[in-house]
């Protein structure tokens, strides 16, 4: 039923393509010729006359005539930043080519209405015995993952789970973690990928916020599950399933070590998924409030994966390595999508180790590795050793590599390419640095920004609210001005969609209306960035009531609530402070306790 609705939605979207293309072309013309500027309009007329002369009088091909006429348009002053175009055109052409490949991949998936499981199945048929995922000393082939995920699907279907059910997946990074959520997706069950570091109230909140019907956990976390179970006693019919050896007296769970092997490896036939179905939930603090369950649809998993693959020019024979948690977007989507969608082998690690990072890269023969800024600083802090340059890594991609250590990191470890990116789990305002510009998190085209509709808007320094002009529209920032990063929402385009959160009120808070034209919508990132003259983007700061520490977003509201409970409802304010030599901000609390009763 849902699949047919989704197909209908895509059909309606296709019917709107003509209107969308007309608007897109008008926007591109405005980018090129400045149609809102009367002087540029006059020069545009001259461009048209030159074009007609070259094409129809001289008989030159239309494309060559257009290019020559536009060059003449620039020379006579049709664009203020002619030098910018000369510097950035090669970059923009490369980006446009890679973006077109990404869009072609998404278009093919959309035409088939494919799911992640279906794409993976096609890879299994192509190379069943190729190594898929490596963990510690064990290698799983594509066929191994396919068989195990099918067993998971058949197992939980037999247990009564069906399309639309939500379950919690709570375990350390391991191959089974991936195979379990992949298997559940084949029957339409939606797992919530729970942070394995959560305990007590935070863990209970994450399980209940998406109405989970079961908790699937690894035996390494049985104590955490035992501790949280009293807080979940009011959840009707909540079931527990454990992977690994455990004591049933600690948690009354069913053993997946018994149930999964008993299930057939044949693909489940009772569910035909859709590209627009929910694949899983990933928790994010964003910039405000408690952690929110962001909705990751199959389509979003695909376009995030395709973006990393094509913008970084990852090749079929590249081997990836990630030591990042698989419950987060970075490790769980950006890296694993290369395996599940494009057939790249991937090595994973349960817990990051700075001293073993390059050893693992050598062990797995990795050519592509993933980072976050904090990891780079930890790796740099290690004593120098021969393994620093004995690896085969040609590309590292991730976010948060600070300008202060960028060049030192690249030089010491001999990394030819850094794919620094900016984005969020749930948002559509994502960019990437494709030409090793030190410190830049990505760029916006200064020539035709409409090609990828993201922008910086001016905000009030005190309230954080967008500043609007006399027409009630947002004001774009000029180069050198910090502003909030936003992405235009286009509901008919999987790349420009904003699926939001399980909590609809939280979703609405991240959407701004009448941003650049009346009736449009854009996603608010909650982050301040700044653009230079060439369109390169640099991170400035986060807004809202969260801070980032050791790769995790910390909700000040959540910490304040815990302090209040511990100190008998004493008022407190939690905020992040910079610590020299460390990435992000460390938490600090100001507690209202003048008589020192609670301290």
Short description:
Helix content is 38%, strand content 21%. With 599 residues, it is an alpha/beta fold.
| Beta-strand proportion | 15-25%
Multimer state: single chain
The strand line-up of the biggest sheet is 2-1-11-10-12-13-14-15
Distance between the termini: 58 Å
Task: Point out poorly predicted stretches.
Answer: 1-16
Radius of gyration based on Cα positions: 26 Å
Give a count of the beta strands, DSSP E runs of length 2 or more.
25
Global outline: globular
Secondary structure layout plus pairing:
Blueprint: H1 2-15, H2 17-33, H3 38-57, H4 62-75, H5 82-112, H6 116-126, E1 131-135, E2 138-141, H7 142-158, E3 166-170, H8 175-185, E4 190-193, H9 200-208, E5 214-218, H10 222-228, E6 239-243, E7 254-255, H11 256-259, E8 278-284, E9 292-297, H12 298-311, E10 319-322, H13 329-342, E11 345-348, H14 357-363, E12 368-372, H15 373-380, E13 395-399, H16 403-413, E14 417-422, E15 431-432, E16 442-443, E17 454-457, E18 482-488, H17 504-509, E19 511-513, E20 521-531, E21 536-542, E22 546-549, E23 552-555, H18 556-566, E24 572-578, E25 585-591
Helix pairs in contact: 3-4, 5-12, 6-13, 7-8, 12-13
């Amino acid at each position: 039923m849902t699949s047919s609705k989704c197909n209908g939605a895509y059909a309606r979207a296709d019917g709107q393509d003509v209107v969308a293309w007309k608007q897109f072309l008008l926007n591109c013309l405005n980018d090129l010729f400045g149609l809102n500027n009367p002087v540029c309009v006059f020069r545009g007329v001259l461009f048209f006359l030159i074009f007609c002369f070259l094409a129809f009088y001289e008989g030159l091909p239309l494309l060559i005539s257009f290019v020559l006429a536009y060059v003449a348009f620039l020379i006579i002053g049709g664009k203020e930043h002619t030098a910018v175009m000369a510097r950035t055109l090669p970059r923009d052409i490369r980006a446009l080519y890679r973006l077109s490949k990404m869009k072609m991949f998404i278009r093919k998936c959309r035409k088939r209405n494919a799911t992640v499981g279906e794409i993976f199945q096609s890879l299994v048929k192509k190379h069943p015995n190729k190594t898929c995922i490596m963990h510690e000393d064990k290698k799983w082939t594509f066929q191994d993952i396919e068989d195990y995920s099918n067993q998971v699907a058949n197992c939980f279907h037999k247990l009564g789970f069906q399309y639309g059910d939500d379950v919690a997946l709570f375990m350390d990074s391991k191959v089974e973690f991936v195979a379990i959520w992949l298997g559940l997706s084949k029957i339409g069950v939606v797992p919530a990928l729970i942070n394995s570091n959560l305990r007590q109230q935070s863990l209970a909140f994450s399980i209940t916020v998406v109405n989970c019907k079961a908790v699937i956990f690894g035996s390494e976390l049985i104590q955490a599950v035992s501790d949280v179970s009293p807080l979940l006693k009011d959840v009707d019919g909540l079931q527990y399933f454990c992977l690994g050896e455990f004591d049933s007296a600690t948690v009354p769970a069913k053993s997946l070590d018994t149930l999964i092997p008993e299930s057939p490896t044949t693909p489940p036939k009772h569910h035909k998924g859709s590209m627009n179905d929910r694949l899983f939930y990933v928790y994010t603090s964003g910039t405000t409030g408690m952690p929110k369950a962001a909705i990751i649809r199959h389509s979003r998993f695909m376009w995030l994966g395709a973006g990393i693959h094509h913008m970084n020019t990852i090749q079929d024979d590249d081997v990836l390595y990630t030591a990042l948690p698989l419950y987060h977007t970075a490790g769980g989507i950006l890296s694993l999508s290369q395996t599940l969608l494009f057939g790249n082998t991937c090595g994973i690690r349960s817990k990051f180790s700075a001293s073993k990072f390059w050893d693992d890269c050598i062990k797995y023969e990795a050519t592509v590795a993933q980072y976050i800024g904090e990891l780079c600083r930890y790796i740099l802090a290690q004593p120098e050793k021969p393994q620093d340059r004995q690896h085969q890594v040609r590309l590292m991609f991730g976010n948060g590599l600070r300008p202060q250590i960028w060049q030192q990191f690249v030089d010491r470890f001999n990394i030819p390419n850094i794919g620094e990116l900016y984005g969020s789990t749930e948002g559509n305002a994502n960019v990437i640095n494709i030409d090793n510009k030190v410190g830049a998190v990505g760029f916006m085209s200064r020539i035709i920004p409409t090609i990828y509709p993201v922008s910086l808007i001016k905000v009030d320094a005190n309230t954080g609210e967008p500043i609007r002009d006399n027409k009630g529209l947002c004001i774009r920032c000029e180069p050198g001005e910090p502003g909030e990063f936003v992405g235009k929402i286009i509901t008919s385009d999987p790349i420009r969609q904003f699926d939001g959160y399980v909590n609809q009120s939280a979703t609405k808070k991240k959407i701004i209306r009448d941003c650049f034209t009346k009736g449009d919508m854009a996603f608010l990132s909650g982050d301040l960035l700044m653009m230079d003259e060439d369109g390169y983007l640099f991170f400035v700061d986060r807004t809202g009531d969260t801070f980032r520490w050791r790769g995790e977003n910390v909700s000040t509201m959540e910490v304040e609530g815990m302090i209040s409970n511990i100190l008998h409802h004493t008022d407190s304010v939690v905020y992040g402070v910079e610590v020299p030599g460390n990435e992000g901000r460390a938490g600090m609390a100001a507690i209202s306790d003048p008589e020192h009763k609670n301290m």
